[in-house]
Each structure stands twice: as C-alpha cells, then as structure tokens.
Design a protein that fits this description.
This protein has a single domain, classed as Glutaredoxin (3-Layer(aba) Sandwich), CATH 3.40.30. The protein has four helices and seven strands. β1 (3-7) and β2 (14-18) form a beta hairpin. The protein has a five-stranded mixed sheet, sandwiched between helices. The radius of gyration is 14 Å and the shape is globular. The protein has helices at residues 45-54, 69-84, 101-106, 132-142; strands at residues 3-7, 14-18, 41-42, 59-64, 90-95, 113-118, 121-127. With 143 residues, the chain is an alpha/beta fold. The protein binds zinc ion.
Amino acid sequence: MTALKVTCLDCGQVNRVPEAKLSQGPKCGTCGARLIDGKPHEIDLRTLEKAAKTDDLPLVVDFWAPWCGPCRMMAPQYATAAGQLEGRARLVKLNTEDHPQAGARYGIRGIPMLAAFKGGREAARQAGAMPAPQIVDWVTRAV
Ligand SMILES: [Zn+2]
C-alpha cells in the first residue's frame, strides 16, 4: 500500500498516511491533530517550507494579508474550495504581514497569490482573487 508523507500543520511532525486512509480523517501520531479536514489552516513560514518540501499530498498556499481587500473577499471562496479538494490537496494560508520574510522567500509581488506545491517543488502559481470553482479548477490542473 502506498503511504503519503503529510506534515502535521499543528506540530510539524511528518506522518505517513496510507493512500486509502486519506479520506478517513487521519490524525497526527504525535499531537493527535487532524491531518486532513478540508479547512484552510493558517500556518507559519517554517511549517510551510517543511510541508512544501516534504509532503506527497499536494499543498496549496494562499499568501494573504489582513489589509488586502481582495484577499478577505476570497477567503470564504478559498474555504469552500478547501472542502471540495479534501483528500486531493491541502489548502493552507500564510499571513504575509505576520511573516514578511515570505515575500522574498517565494518572490511574491502581489497578493492574493496562490502557489501549488507537489513533490517538493512549486508546480504552479496564480495571482489575483478567484471564486471557489475557479480555485478548484486551477488546483486540479496544477497538481
Ligand atoms: Zn501534530
């Protein structure tokens, strides 16, 4: 059975999850947090770098900031997309105001910006706010 490496977004522990269990609410072996719950978790830069490099399950990041109107407008759309993509990709958020180093680290010129990571590298990026169906579409094609 194939096991996928999935980084816990709460404690940073890398878990191995059998593919068949991706949709059964797998939990972190270290802290017990749900690894996959269809919700867009807010993470820090360290966790993002680790998960982007390590995870076999595709990871999508929304780089946003509280002062950014289009970012706030997209938030509920992004949450809907996260639910629809549960088990296929994990959608997370990174607050660029709390983590200003992210801008240089990922070469971000404007927000909102989505980046999709797969197999340890960035597979695609997309600038600008999108409605939920378009986010789902974009992620499906990217990863
Ligand atoms: Zn954990």
